[in-house]
Each structure stands twice: as structure tokens, then as C-alpha cells.
Write a structure and sequence with these properties.
100 residues, mainly alpha
Amino acid sequence: MPYLIAFFATVLLEFLVIFLFIRKKPKILFLGSLAINSITWPAANIVYNYFWHNLLVIELLVFLVESVLLVIILKIKLPKALAVSFFANLITALAGFIIF
């Protein structure tokens, strides 16, 4: 159950960051956040828990993958996607450190 709460907290926090950058079509942005995190969140957790305990490198990879997915799913330009992904992942990582 804690994993499910953490997942949806991540989706919500990242949606809020994405919305602050884009400020249109919140339903699409939420679904985009849900889709993107449905790919990266479990992958990052599996890699971290079972294979490689380097959180910094895993977060860097998530940041890069999410940037590309933002370009593909939300049709935004790469520089903006990089900024959105950086801040979204920074906020969720800080929240994770504070909570856990």
C-alpha cells in the first residue's frame, strides 16, 4: 500500500509542476503525468530496489526519459520538456526524502 500512495503522490506532484509550466488542458496534463509515471516510476523502483542502489544516476535517467516522453505525449519542445522534467523530478525527489 505505501508504494501505491507514493506512486499517486508522484503523479499528483508532477502533474502540478507540469501544469505550472503549461497551464492549459489540465485533464490532458494529468493523463500525461499518469502515463509517463506509469512507465518511469515502476522501472526506477525496480532498478533501485533489486539491481542498482545509485539514486542519483537513476533519477538522472528518469529525468531524461521523462523529458523525451513529455515531448512525445504532450507535444512540447525539448528545452521546455527538460525544464519541466527537471523541476518535476526535483520536487518529487525532495518530497520523497522529506517523507521517507
